[in-house]
Write a structure and sequence with these properties.
This protein is mainly alpha-helical. It has three domains: 125 residues, no CATH class; 93 residues; 179 residues, hpI Integrase, Chain A (Orthogonal Bundle). Helices cover 49% and strands 7% of the residues. It has 18 helices and six strands. A three-stranded antiparallel sheet has the order 1-2-3, covered by helices on one side. α12 packs parallel to α16. The radius of gyration is 30 Å and the shape is elongated. The protein starts with a strand and ends in a 9-residue tail after the last helix. About 1% of the residues have low confidence.
Length: 437
Amino acid sequence: MPDFLTRRGSMWHFVRRVPAEFAAFDRRGIIRHSTRIHIADDRVGRRAARVAEKLNAALEQHWKALAANDGSSSPSRYDEARRRARELGFDYVANDQLITLPIARILERLEALVTKGVVQDAGARAALLGTEKPTAFNLSQLFEEYEAATKDETRDLSPDQLRIWRNGRMRAVAHFVKVVGDKPVTAITESDGIDYTEWWRERVLEEDIAVKSANKDIGQLSRMLKDMSIRRRLNLPDIFKGLRLRGEVEKSRQPFDPAFIQGRLLTGNGLDALNEDARLVLYVMMETGLRPSEVVNLRDGTIFLGAPIPYVRVAADGRRLKTEDSARDVPLVGVALAALRLRPHGFPKYRDKATALSATVNKYLTENNLRPTKDHTVYSLRHSFKDRLVAIEAPDSLIDSLMGHKTYKPKYGRGPSLELKLKFLSQIAFDAPTRLV
């Protein structure tokens, strides 16, 4: 018989004794749960065993959480009570709300404790009588709580994307604690929101920080507080409502002039001292308009040099794309084709390291006077790519398809073919430097 599975009356039941190492945190002694599967319908217990495995996994997770928090984690106990209530066939209702319900509804829960044989089970009583309260955590724990509660939202992020996602939110929480202090999250007030916004306003004025950066930080913090208020049922006030800083300007990067790209970056020796992988990434960007993160994550399975029309495919492939429309096929011409023939398996040196690639290239461009203005960056190559397509009067739909732009339009048909894309890309291809030919 599978572990922790036993017959009880006509039903299969999960039964497990609390391990000694967790006994101090969970005083129930023996845990019993019905699998709700009749023995007559599952003679050898295969289906019941699968249910028991899930119950056991949840139980193990609960014990580990209690141990990690010295058995005092109220959110863990509260979440466990809600889970137990669902398992026993009821929604969790807080005790102060439960007593306002019709007496028949209350009796249903009391009868369930008796009929299910869990009257002595403190966890079951708390679940059906609603005696566990959602207790707040301190502000310094906000990101930790938020990250744990939103695992499903970050599961498709690559390691580097997850690092960036975490760092911004951790930084926002640290800033907030610095300004208003490390208080229980339920103690925050609208005054705290004003204080924090004013702190950012001063930084914008005194340190020349972009308003967009301040609002991004405020927005991330607001989202975390709102999400945790809902998930933990904390009823927190919306302390940042109407408090975003005004004057935000979307600063566009300046495109490189095509003559500059051809004369200074390609046929000239401007990029000669840049490491070869970074230089080849730039060549691919010049002719495809791909984002740096899209180029560095090309690999076997997304590079098709042997196809009748050589092309690359931008796909999720272990990371989250910027938008759904970012998934696309782009033909290879000119220096992009030559570069990928030298790197047919992609760029392992920079894979999932687009930030490092951009930092390396931007530093090199600065030190070698290859940035006509401070607004010219590696990303400017993408803007140049679009301008070159516009100059030859390529259709907007084709430009959007090549750029991977979100169009907010209904999708009809398959979109521009590789042949059509190639027709226009061939018209804007650069002359390859002699070292690539």
